[in-house]
Specification:
Chains A, B: GO terms for molecular function: omega-amidase activity. Chains A, B: One of its GO terms (biological process) is glutamine metabolic process. Chains A, B: This is CN hydrolase domain-containing protein. Chains A, B: It holds the Pfam family CN_hydrolase. Two copies of one chain form a homodimer. Chain A has 305 residues and is of the alpha/beta class. Helices cover 25% and strands 27% of the residues of chain A. Chain A has seven helices and 15 strands. In chain A, strands 2, 3, 4, 5, 6, 7 and 14 form a seven-stranded mixed beta sheet that branches. In chain A, strands 8-9-10-11-12-13 form a six-stranded mixed beta sheet, covered by helices on one side. In chain A, helix 1 runs parallel beside helix 3. The longest helix of chain A is centred in the C-terminal third of the chain and has 19 residues. The radius of gyration of chain A is 19 Å and the shape is globular. Chains A and B meet through strand 1, helix 4, helix 5, helix 6 and strand 15 of A and strand 1, helix 4, helix 5, helix 6 and strand 15 of B. Strand 15 of chain A pairs antiparallel with strand 15 of chain B.
């Protein structure tokens, strides 16, 4: 037991951004062992999404690199040197040439001898607006019989902070794959005023079938906001079989759009007015009992951050 | 912004009780406007559950009284005077005569001029072991077109604390209906070492279809414990149409047993070893980042409470 002093903030007020109705494009990319092919393919599908009217585009976890821990170092890029980072450079170029905002899934990031599983965010001028490093690494404990042991932290270092980014399309919180298993991260984003949480992720066949949709719907319902996920497509020949099923969920837990396990561009209409009327209809936030429990966001800097 | 000093506890260690494998009986009762008929019917279904081997028995929300706010006062009982409380007296009698533990759903409670929506817990000696007063009352905000306004707090006062009760069948946390919408309550119970959370509830047709199963599976998965729910059966003639579908969910979110909307006795096998191997397989608790967020249980008294 310890007594700790914490700053307690109320939730940031919901501000509806100027552009509250728009199309999101989810690129469920096929990932190969050829980095250059992955980059070209991603560019093509981003363009296809933009051509279908998407102005906010989401990519999957580890889209430039197969999900094999021994390949992360080889495929990693330095986020502080974009001109030498082919994946990031493409995202910057395509964001500005199409005038779209890109939540860039994740790629391996190298920084000071460490590797991270990191999501870059590019604005429509091509600038790197934010970066989220996966906080909760997927470390299995004792595997079930027949299950393959997997410990992401053997190769990857953990991010140390939540990431919200203000875009033309609202305030967006980012979580990568296993980050979705922690209600605390979604609560953090909700309290900071997020409209949408984007989860690039690559769930496997077992947790994919049982938990992928459940977790997305739950985070949306419990926090009364939008959730969008983007998985790589399934590669039946790969060593790590991916579930796929990228999805967009509305603030009442309704599935707005979803897809199977093949490569796909998924387009969904988002309207943040739905957040407002969902919260007006059932004001969960004001029904919480802060005399009984409190959730503390230790790194929040101010009531409006 | 305020700076508050809080006591920070780690989660209570999981203790597997002596009886870790047992059958739970869920009595999805039909509720009528006749209190005496409701009591007799409940007794019969409790007995039926016990005859099928259930040693822990769960009843629905408001099982002695239709869910009509104008009836609550008439049907209410005083928990401090069981000899004058027919519903409680029956539960005490049947618990001791059958030697079962009963999580008694809820009935209207009267205390000092207030009404509560309260769950009584009876041990196998017939003693009232605990009482949970519904904390989160179902107060709708602005109804959707066609929706009926509903404000439970017009008639009912809110409970002021979480309830965990140590039984022969483990440590049990209790939430009533709308309590399930708040992840914080389930997190409280999990941190206090609960094996099972029981949610008596009477979701309506709309949130029943969309959220009832989702919320139960989520609370189980996010906290890696068992969840059991018990609804009244549907009464197509009633003014408040109830979803039904009482369910038992395991710590990986798997549905162990469920039913439709008719009156039913549902029997499910519980084995707390599943909690242990779920947590060993994926130790979510130790993967939380208490340098980023903390959940504070303000009323917890000690690391073991």
């Amino acid at each position: 037991m310890a007594t700790v002093a914490v700053q307690s903030f109320v939730s940031a007020p919901l501000r509806i951004p100027k552009i509250a109705q728009f199309k999101i494009g989810i690129c469920q990319l096929k990932v190969t062992t050829e980095k250059s092919a992955n980059i070209l393919n991603a560019r093509n599908l981003i363009q296809a999404a933009a051509e279908q009217g998407a102005s906010l585009i989401l990519l999957p976890e580890m889209w430039n690199c197969p999900y094999s821990t021994n390949l992360f170092a080889k495929f990693a890029e330095d986020f502080s040197d974009i001109d030498s980072a082919p994946s990031l450079l493409m995202l910057s170029e395509v964001a500005s040439s199409l005038g779209v905002t890109i939540i860039g899934g994740s790629i391996p990031e190298k920084d000071a001898g460490q590797l991270y599983n990191s999501c870059p965010v590019f604005g429509p001028n091509g600038e790197l607006k934010a970066k989220h490093r996966k906080i909760h690494l997927f470390d299995m404990g004792k595997p079930f019989p027949g299950e393959v042991q997997f410990k992401e932290s053997d190769n990857i270092s953990a991010g140390e902070k939540p990431t919200v980014v203000d875009t033309d399309f609202g305030r967006i919180g980012i979580g990568i794959c296993h980050d979705i298993r922690f209600p605390e991260l979604a609560m953090t984003y909700s309290a900071r005023g997020a409209h949408l949480i984007c989860y690039p992720g690559a769930f496997n066949m077992s947790t994919g079938a049982t938990l992928w949709e459940l977790e997305q719907r739950t985070r949306a319902v419990d926090n009364q906001l939008y959730v969008a996920s983007c998985s790589p497509s399934r590669d039946s020949a790969g060593s790590y079989m991916i579930w796929g099923h990228s999805t967009v969920v509305g603030p009442m837990g309704e599935i707005i759009a979803t897809t199977g396990h093949e490569e796909a561009v998924l387009i969904a209409e988002i309207d943040y007015a739905a957040i407002q009327w969902t919260r007006e209809s059932l004001p969960l936030e004001s029904q919480k009992h802060d005399d009984i429990y409190q959730f503390v966001d230790l790194l929040r800097e101010s009531p409006n951050s």
